[in-house]
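Appendix B, example 12.
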Amino acid sequence: MTVDTVVNLTMPISPYLPVGGLHAWESAYRTEPIATLEHNGANLFYITMCTGTGTRLRTPGFGDATGAQIPDMPLTALVNVPAYVLRVPKGPGEAITAADVDDALGGLPDWAGQALILVTGWGDAERWEQLGERYALETPHLSTEAAEIMASRMAEHGSTLLLTDCAHLDRASVAREEWADLPPWLRPSWPSDQAKAYVRHYTPEKVARDWQATLTLTRSASVVVGLAGAGALAAAEVQLTVLPLFIDDVAEAPCTVVAESLEGIENR
């Protein structure tokens, strides 16, 4: 097996990363030295971040109190999972439509039980470093109709895992207008008093409007959002491993995702 058959699809977590540091309920990634090599002989760090930082896994518990949480996910659903790559190129702010989903799924052979990787190209070329917060704000996203069709087709085929290089599945128009579009100095991140006040007024009705695609897809499947470098997947079919931080009582956590071409596996 050659090294280039394995692709790391994980966004590196670093200071000022826009994915996980933009919305009121998000806490920007920060590190602070606890001990240093110079003074203590070892490097130790205090880290703060929210569960929605970088590449992250969302399970059915995201929108359902009875749904699976991160620790409930069986390893068989996350390790060495066969997946088809769906290429739907999209630019800034463009919606993935119902027709796009129909066309992408219509070209697949039998995909019973397979995971799906929806590749728009947004996560390529380390675009998050170039665009900053615009990377999260201008991401391609799924329309409500596209999410409904995707969820329905996945249920029909027994597919329980969808991955995408979109920074978010939804545009979150309400949260964007009321919070994210404000100047940075008017929207200090969680746990600021301003962020807590906003979340208290972010009602279930607003959540339903902003996160319809996410809530639709996580009703019966798990979703990985924020893949990086998925354009490097040359094969139409790969084998995936998704390893989230094993945090108790959460339905979203940063994760590491690697993909291996089936050709590479067969040539071992």
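DSSP finds ten helices and twelve strands in the chain. The first strand starts at residue 6 and ends at 8.
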